[in-house]
Give the backbone structure.
Amino acid sequence: MNLIKQDFSFHDEWGPEHIVRVYEPKSGLQGILVVDSTVLGPSKGGIRMAANVTEEEVFRLARTMTWKNALAGIPFGGAKAGIVWNGKRDKKTLIQAFARAIKIYTPRKYIAGPDVNTGEREMQWFVEATGNWRSATGKPANYCMSVFGERGEKCGIPHEFGSTGFGVAKATRAAAEVYGLDIKGATVAIHGFGNVGTFAFQYLTEMGAKVVAIADKSGAILNERGFDRRKIDKFIEAKKELKGYSDGENIIEKEFWNLPVDILIPASVTDVINDSNKNSIQAKVIVEAGNIPMRENIEEELFKRGILIVPDFVANAGGVISSYAEYRGYNPKWMFELVERKIIRSAKTVLEKSLKSGVNPRQIALEIAKERVRKAALKRKVI
């Protein structure tokens, strides 16, 4: 195993503290770990598996986690990991090779979690390889601390419970209230229909919102009457791609971004809102369910056009709040209560200050998060 600590490619007063590249010829493992900050506590961030994962992307995501945890008031720092995976190599082999390589950082410096193409199964593999229950969160609900010979009822709280999508839905309702929209009957478009997007759909539908457009990597579907929750649930259970869904009209990607909806929820990949579609957007509110769905300059352009934007590290903090609940040994009921309380408080604080001051919500949220990290750093005398 070749484990190399690189010179920092990205650095400022906030971090990163460690950038670690991992390469193992035998398994074909190529991985990167960015520990951005441990000022507030051990760094927390998921493991992303994708063919095109890059060091810059992992750093940007790690920095987002630093602010997300600080804003949510959680004693975690920020981190992120990435593994190059083309869908062909054995995932378990790669995950466990990566876990063994970075074991010296877990859990004191880094705690893993699910991300793109990783979930509860992969988190179980990770902790099996490190031999430390606390080295990852998002583990299966029936996977308990007793596997390591310890008594107790502390079990996993997988992201498959929908904590991130639940938090996105709560952030959406909070944003609608601040904007003056009634969530009941508000039209919504969701881009990305994986774990986050599907749960956001379910909870928003329960609130009375009308989801009229959904999209995944296979295509986009429009139903101006609003999608039927029961039909969509069955479709989700079957794990089919949206291009096979018949209760709606197939539309092209360009048409999706041009829809005159009240609320747009990008819940898919990095930079999905970009120069090619930013001018088409007609939504009144954007809730960033996915991490870094657009670059900051584009976000600023949209804000100046009068669109209210809930930043990613405000809207999608439900997952890391759930991680903290699991880390502390809370049960799922307590977890959901904690997510709801923290998400609504953060979203309303940020958005109300934004409207009052005329400053982009991201800048407001960053100021709050930075102040919390700065105070903690001064207390620890690390700056």
Notes: Residues 163-370 form a domain with the Rossmann fold fold (CATH 3.40.50.720). Residues 332-357 form the longest helix (26 residues). Residues 1-8 have pLDDT under 50 and may be disordered.
